[in-house]
Design brief:
The complex is a heterodimer of chains A (about 160) and B (about 100). By secondary structure, chain A is mainly α. Chain A contains 6 helices and no strands. Chain B has a single domain, classed as Helix Hairpins, CATH 1.10.287.3510. Chain B is built from 3 helices and no strands.
Amino acid sequence: MTGVGEVAAFWILATITVGSAVVVALVRDLVRAVVALVGSFLGVAGLFILLSAEFLAVVQVLIYAGAISILMVFAIALTPRSARDNAETAMRWLALALALAMVGLLIAVATVTEWGPQAKEGFQETASAIGEALLNRYVLPFEVASVLLLAAMLGAVVMVRED
Amino acid sequence: MEVGLEHFLVIGALLFGIGLLLSLSKRNLIGVLMGIELMFNGANVTLVAFARFLEGAEALAGQVLVVFAITIAAAEAAVALAIAMALYRRRQTVDVDRADILRG
């Protein structure tokens, strides 16, 4: 990606995505954390469009920014106000050290490795090809995913049912 | 300035790291779940970036894998929030430190 627009879009989206994720880690109120989390999800959707994955960008907005965040808001609203505090446990510094080590390792691998020639072409439409692949080559995992969703739905209903 | 594969991999690594920090350090079960979702997102960005940039790689395979990852993330979120509700009903708390019912 060398176009001025693409490069500018990448930096803006990267800032939104990572900045919102940092806000999620810093704010203490869970409702505010969910709002920041939606910002991060939308930033990732923008990055997907930059990466020629427009179908995944739409799915990201529908499932993550829509469904999962609304589900979290429901869970927050159904637990008491006193449980809205998003404080850390006693192990926070150990967790921070572990997370920093993980990020350092991943970034080192990403920058040191020679990834070979990179595809240079611009935006390419992929949604129709994904649709065909899902119903031809990947039809078995597609069907198994529906069984998994059914099992998860039944499990969630059974767990929240009044005894 | 050119944006390449490494830039997207670094974004994915940062998202994964922040998610790991959240899920390891937060006391609230819903906060832990937010961290897990951020880790999912970091992994998805990495997969789509590889699908877009690596030549010879099957571009579609990466994106189809992300479709299934998002499906499983949705199922996981529903079950995790159901666990949060059930835990709150039994113990009147969503603090993961106090969820020690299974401790021997």
